[in-house]
Amino acid sequence: MEILDNHEYFMEKAIEWAGVANQMDEAPVGCVITQNEKIIAAGYNRRENDQNALAHAELAAIKTACEKTGFWRLNECDLYVTLEPCPMCAGAIINARIRRVIFGAFDKKSGAFGSVVNLNDFGFNHKPEIIGGVLAEKAGALLSAFFSDLRKKQKGQ
Known about the structure:
Radius of gyration: 15 Å
Number of strands: 5
Helix content: 40-55%
């Protein structure tokens, strides 16, 4: 399996977790973390259900990966997420020393690995490799449909 194929395979898994969030009426963002080409953790957006601003997909997956590995440094891990990480999640990724971040859709409003700001441009002690746009149309379509439906619901109320 070629590297790009691996990225697409694992992004499909992140998209499946985004579907779980979508079924819970959450913004459909999903994340998986891999180590040695195996998924060791997953997460999905739960901000509305938990009423917690910190309940992002990436943070849930990072927490699980740390628990699974028994270590806070995830420098042998790759993180796949359906939407470009926000500043909070990008900071957590840097602090966890995640090796590589592969994301789907670019986030023009709060993306922190290139769209609004790039935290790798600052002098932090760790800079993950960033690969954006993997299955971007598929990941973006899920988000677009969710927010379109949400706007329709809000207009109807």
